[in-house]
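Reply to dn_fold:

You asked what the input looked like. This is it:
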Amino acid sequence: MSLTKEELQELVRNKLGNRPLLVVSNREPYIHVFAGSQVRCQVPASGLTVALDPVMRACGGIWIAHGSGNADREVVDEKNRVAVPPQEPSYTLRRIWLSKEEEEGYYLGFSNEALWPLCHIAYTPPTFDEAHWNMYQRVNRKFAEAVLDETEDNEAFVFIQDYHLALLSRMIKEKNPRLVTAQFWHIPWPNPEAFRICPWGREILHGLLGNDLLGFHIRYHCDNFLDTVRLLLEARVDRERSQVTYGGKTTLVRPYPISVDFHRIAQEAARPEVEKEMEQIQQRWDTGDKFVGIGIDRLDYTKGIPHRLKALDKFLTKYPEYLGRIVFFQLGEPSRVHIKRYKELNAEIEDLVEEINWKYESDEWKPVILLREHLPPSTLMAFNRLADFCIVSSLHDGMNLVAKEFVSSRIDEDGVLILSHFTGAARELNEAVLINPYATDEFAEAIKTAIEMPPEQRQARMRKLRQVVAQNNIYRWAGDIISQLADLKS
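and this is what came back:
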């Protein structure tokens, strides 16, 4: 059963009472940047923050995150706090500051050169550097200090996000055992054989088992985690109850498939500004009589962007009757550009786009348009609404909210979602055209299927997809976690 924003507010009041709720993440939900002499607030390209912001708007509380915008310090008070969202403040953002050295070691280094490739089976080997690990511990302590500053010795519920903060729950509970903590791991958890290569794997498990509740997107990741604990730690693993008892303390391990605010996205998709941007896109790129495909991703090697470009190339080779009749927009904000593998990926994508366009383009037409920039939500919404098909071709993904955002935005109940089997979303969105992104010929056929699907079939499938996302919305996800967390305390 889905929850509304108002029902979640009521649930939080009943379950948490006067005890505050803190969310802790590396990425902040709002970034302040200079635009000339003015300060502008923007939403980062992050599935995590897009998902959690409506929850915090509903619940209130404090969100602790790294302040990464070049104007972030300009807008905070003496305790490094700012009320957000800017238009309708409903919760507090508490920023912590990291030096370049800390960012490099903790974020670029251990989080994204070690843990990220370790957990995503995308054939990019992790790099383990002791200096990065030391910095990861140091920054986790810095986050812990901010949490303890906000909670003091009082009771509170702390909801920790993701792989950047694996040590946090243990650190804060050593100082304040009255805290109740849940952690949601937004990326996959690998099998034990893959995880055991991490030199500090036991320390990471020790940190995560400081939580009262540990959540993953799907049961498969929960099972992988339980198997990893059994292999690496002296702990009692109860598969039937899906829990671990370690050092005299029990941690529940549960699947919670994350989602989006379906109704808010649908409302925003209907705004006149979005309609206007749709017209501008059509005029700028002359898409009126063409089939439009889109991919919306951070430019990350786990997203399978080269694989979709190769599939598009194969499609145009096999079906030349579509030359001049299709345009594919790859929208992507550059990500982690200081890491070598990401630089290589950007170059690979650029080369593929140039090669495909050179191979097929005419004076009036290019098959692929690459937009590597931060685009505002209204522009992304306009592309979602214009597209005849959206490709999500992740090689390995915890969930992938781009797929759910596309479905939520389709207020016309039309369009086709082409979705990788290797996403958590594929478990729920089985009315999508499901693909193996490594199978290029099969992938090319899926593009043809999407383009040629009869309107009645397209619309029937999209209606079913929208029902699933509306039912399993972000408020239900948060409500399930908060209810479980509060029940542990009672």
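Residues 130-151 form the longest helix (22 residues).
Hope that clears it up.
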